[in-house]
Amino acid sequence: MIVEQPALFALNVATLCVIIFSAHQLILRMHSQHVYRPLAVCLLSIGLIAMLPISKVLLPIEWQIINLLVSLPALLLIAPSLWLYTKALTSNTPWQLSRHDIKHLIPVCIGCTITLIALCLPAPYQHAILVNDNLALIEQAPSLLQILIYGLLIITFISVLGWVLQSAWYFYKIIKQLRDYHAKLKDVFASTEQKELHWLVWLLSSVGGVWLFIATNLVFDNLLSPIPLSPHLHATLVLLLVYSLSLWGLRQKPGFVECYDLDKAPEPNKPPITDPPASRDEKYQRSALDAQQAQRIATKLQRAMQGDKLYLDPALSLPKLAAHICAPSHYISQTLNETLDIRFFDFVNQHRVDAAKHTLVQSDKTILDVAMLVGFNSKSAFYAAFKKHTGMTPSAYRQQDSTD
After folding, report:
1. Domain that holds residue 368
2. Domain HTH araC/xylS-type: where (predicted)?
């Protein structure tokens, strides 16, 4: 075995090792949570493509051809599986693959069909197309075989270029899903720092930049001439992205996992508390909550905050509050939105900020100590909430009071 570029080969092997280890860990966890299934599929799909330069060194030509052929459906599977993983992370119920999700696998099925047909071609033609790039041999093939081979080449070309559009579409869908998810979090949790999935946003931004370059290079490679790119740089970027996706994927839990077994609805046909509605009226149109009930719940909410000081719990959530005041969480959500005209996140943090204002004036505790004392999980979250509700920073508020 002769390796012409040892450093590049080492980077490719490292990427493949990270994928194999991470996919194995995810598969072990799939029996308890299906959320890890699409991530494992995504990593394995990337692994099949990352295997291409390694197979040229380690595998015989027949296996190289098989690896090359299966890389097409693997390429078309990366974006849908990443989308399904994002959907699973942001779902307000335990995620499972549904019939509605099957449509995302249609391009993959097309790629698999192309692969199966190509595998059935006689070996000389496989070598001519995939190894030697010898189209002259195809001209000597029987007419029907010529039509079949050229048809496969055209469909493959369209599929590869279609991957560019497919990736752009799923990139948009994931960004939109994350935006809606961030809004849903504030209807259920008072502290969202650990659930924001900022790592996924960063990863998507990085992947978006790399994807844009690869897509542009792919178009130029097929239509004009390829853009020069250092293979070492490309391999390093892929390794870093795979490592980040694997590391955070293994650590990340679904955002609403605490609510999966809570808040069982006593009312039939009630809407999920975390679904993003098209409008407020549409969200609560089936609710049986009347104005008198809403007012009683509003009174209980104020008592829970001002008397019981429930806002001091850093992990306070809508189901926890519902259990405390013995009211359905969807009624609480409706009361907050319609009667008190405030979201759960802002309702709790308003009380935290009010308590912090008093502590800032009456004590010499540090800003961080005050933030933790009133229920915030971090100094940054405290600053953001304080600035939103008072128009100034905690330090400025303390200085202003001392000068008055």
Report:
1. 292-403
2. 295-400
| 59-98 confidence digits (pLDDT tens) | 899 899 999 999 999 999 999 999 999 999 999 888 888 8
Q: Burial letters for 270-307: b for 16+ Cβ neighbours within 10 Å, e otherwise?
A: bbebbeeeeeeeebbeebebeeebbeebbebbeebbee
pTM over 0.85: no
Which stretch of DSSP H or E encloses residue 21?
A: helix 6-29
Instruction: Verify that 137 and 66 share a domain, yes or no.
Output: yes
Extract the tokens encoding 120: 């059935």
Q: Is residue 262 part of a domain?
A: no
Question: 98-132: b or e for each residue (b if 16 or more CB lie within 10 Å)?
Answer: eeebeebbebbebbbebbeebeebeeebbbbbbee
Of residues 253, 340, 282, the one with CA closest to residue 39? 253
- If one counts every other C-beta atom within 10 angstroms of the C-beta of residue 159, the result is 18
The reply to whether 283 falls in a domain is: no
